[in-house]
Amino acid sequence: MSYFDAASSLPLHPVARQALLAALDEGWADPGRPHREGRRARMLLDAARESAAEAVGCRPDELHFTPSGTHALHSGVAGALAGRRRVGRRLVVAAVEHSAVLHAAEAHERIGGSVRQVGVDRAGRVDPREFAEAVGAGSTGAGGAGATGGAEGAGAAAGGAAGLACLQSANHEVGTVQPVEEVADACAEAGVPLLVDAAQSLPWGPVPGSWSLLAGSAHKWGGPGGVGLLVVRKGTRFAPQGPVDERESGRAPGFENIPGIVAAAASLRAVRAEADAETARLRELTALIRARVPELVPDAEVVGDPERRLPHLVTFSCLYVDGEALLHALDAAGFSVSSGSSCTSSTLTPSHVLRAMGVLSEGNVRVSLPPGTEEADVERFLQRLPEAVASVRGRVPGVRADAGGAAGGGMTLGGGGGTGGAAGGEVTVDARGKRCPVPVIELAKVVGRLPEGGVVTVLADDEAAALDIPAWCEMTGNTFEGRDGESYRVRRVAGA
Amino acid sequence: MSYFDAASSLPLHPVARQALLAALDEGWADPGRPHREGRRARMLLDAARESAAEAVGCRPDELHFTPSGTHALHSGVAGALAGRRRVGRRLVVAAVEHSAVLHAAEAHERIGGSVRQVGVDRAGRVDPREFAEAVGAGSTGAGGAGATGGAEGAGAAAGGAAGLACLQSANHEVGTVQPVEEVADACAEAGVPLLVDAAQSLPWGPVPGSWSLLAGSAHKWGGPGGVGLLVVRKGTRFAPQGPVDERESGRAPGFENIPGIVAAAASLRAVRAEADAETARLRELTALIRARVPELVPDAEVVGDPERRLPHLVTFSCLYVDGEALLHALDAAGFSVSSGSSCTSSTLTPSHVLRAMGVLSEGNVRVSLPPGTEEADVERFLQRLPEAVASVRGRVPGVRADAGGAAGGGMTLGGGGGTGGAAGGEVTVDARGKRCPVPVIELAKVVGRLPEGGVVTVLADDEAAALDIPAWCEMTGNTFEGRDGESYRVRRVAGA
């Protein structure tokens, strides 16, 4: 069994386990009490705070332990926005932020604030100039020097400086590293605090630059569940929301989980000690996956920035594959991976990250290697993957065998097949009521049978089609001619 | 060393420790993922939920694990009030609720809601009729039958049914058990949900009655820190506040702390198995303390209901004693206890619980015995207590030896001393700028030297004086004649 879902959660690091056991005996009392058990608990808490602060690169009194990374993001966004309520109520976020940030943004909108999402390129990366412009940098400061970037830029800068900007250090689904340092500089110049969601990158190193707030989550670095951290740098205006509580400087209510905190701090220190060596090693293993998957699996696309990326994470999508079915096939083959595919999400919409990138969401697989993963494990994965994909492609639910005579065991859909039995230059495929990847599969079946320049109109009401049909065209070289409601037009290109 | 602060936090129960260790290996993955590690974590979470629900007396799908008891109370109050926003925006709470409830009430006021605090008797208990009336029970339903109770009652019932009522199952500072079942019936009849803070009583048994919401905290029953629970019974309107999150049915955002949850559930089951035997045993030990403290310590008062009380908790106050100094003296003598005294609180105001009860807050000590406490430990405590109190009484900071010639090593203040050197029938003591217990000590010094009917005017700006001067009069038999700003009038009663 190989666990390749480190970006979701890691097993407890052995050092964390030892620290936890010790702290269970010493750290159970209320650190707010003056008796000796309370003082002992307080000492453990203080020591953990110092250790974590050193790893993060901040002062101990700037670091607050929270019950989760999600809690840190929720309370960090709300507190920073409330602290600057009179300055600006616009929240700027990257479109590919973790859902915890996007949900905090929705909550901000519900109380009357505004939110500006900054898009990303096909690799999932924000343009630092566009981001800076959205924040309001350049509208004050050096007149006319920078900032005429994206099409939406000019309009967004209107309204003065933002209340808060949020940018992840690296993306959790595709591993792309964001230009945090540049953006932080621009934010600092504009006087806008930047909150960095560092959940995915914190195990690998501190976040450089002049950010104002930072959030992290211990179970991503081998610490236990139930521990997050929120850093609020001195000088950052911050007004905690919700009921008052005196614990963690008023920034995380409730009795402190000291054994968990102690274990989290110990684990962060331990993974950092191994970070350089593991970065080099895992980067090679993920490079191997990036290179080999497109060779091994027909109609697969590796997504995310090929260079500016997390060392341990690689994501790819496979055409004509139901993502959930592929996860199950890989699980049965002994590999635990994750997916941003629409078909596994409880909301039945495609991953907002893949959508913002404009890449295929079908048959999406995220491989995130835990420290210590061996090359042999990765080789075994690459060996079993093609078979898993083929098995799923062979049994996509809802594909009718009578839909046009195509397919069969070894499907080679979408490739350069002949013109087959299609009657004329214009065909309509009705895939309404069918979930991804069926619309694309039905599209692929008929395109191959059209003459060059022939047009397929796909009727589809699954929102994922809006992402997957254009992405399929981009991958296969056919032309996407546009969408009108539930109707998508695709023109065949010869040799595609 | 004897740890007598169980009501703050308990060491991890051995059963919880075992469960935690096992769950560290099995429960670290994301229970929302479909791979086998995720499914294994989900199974542990589901089993813990079933076990906890059985102990609480609810359905598993009504019980949500939260990061703390405080979090459960904050989100429970906010969610229940938001769910009934259109019905009623009045929140009714007992004046002696835990600060987490009172802080949630303040937050409700900040967003435009109203709060009605229902007072308690000198034992710390609410009158169920008065509480029901404040909730609005009786304003609908059986016309004119009940409800003419307290002085504030009639006015408070105006405005129809409340949005939510909160009543603790038992008080955390004095151990008084509240009439939850009666109040729950009245609330149910009025159609108002009742949220029960069961943090202190849950180790001893389920909360009976038709309550709608319930909160608890695992570290109070030998579970780990970082785990609380919120029960929302089916049919209770509930609208979670803050950013959306899909975990724990949307009622507790953030990655679940599954090892902690598993340990918490195991511990609750374990303490319940021992609850009957421990209840009987500890009840005798606390009865011993209740009976002996007033005999052993001059000018000490045991507070809280003598019968309707938690088995393991007893609280007393000692005149002329600085609470913090007494805690340190007891700590040095090997006993870890707690205090609701003004002098130990970071806010420098007396415990709101003692204030609501109208009892002395000076030199307050809460003894809460962990399961397994031996009679010999309690005997040792009773043996050392008088010496600890005497040592602190001998060195109260800020008492000037020149203030009137009284005192010395073995102070017998406030008792029936002679008329001493006081000049006339009216004396003013200026204790402004001095913190408790100094104002009462200076009062006691001069009263003894006045003739019967003589009056002392105490000038004091420490808010605790407003509680302690009347309480001192009640204890010593002198007459409290009233307060005018910072001026308090006390008349000497002969023999007092």
UniProtKB/TrEMBL annotation, chains A, B:
This is Aminotransferase. Residues 429-453 form the UPF0033 domain. It comes from Streptomyces cacaoi. The keyword Transferase applies. It catalyses: (sulfur carrier)-H + L-cysteine = (sulfur carrier)-SH + L-alanine. Pfam families: Aminotran_5, TusA. PROSITE patterns: UPF0033 (PS01148). InterPro entries: Aminotrans_V_dom, PyrdxlP-dep_Trfase, PyrdxlP-dep_Trfase_major, PyrdxlP-dep_Trfase_small, TusA-like, TusA-like_sf. Its cofactor is pyridoxal 5'-phosphate. Keywords: Aminotransferase, Transferase. Belongs to the class-V pyridoxal-phosphate-dependent aminotransferase family. NifS/IscS subfamily. GO terms for molecular function: cysteine desulfurase activity; transaminase activity.
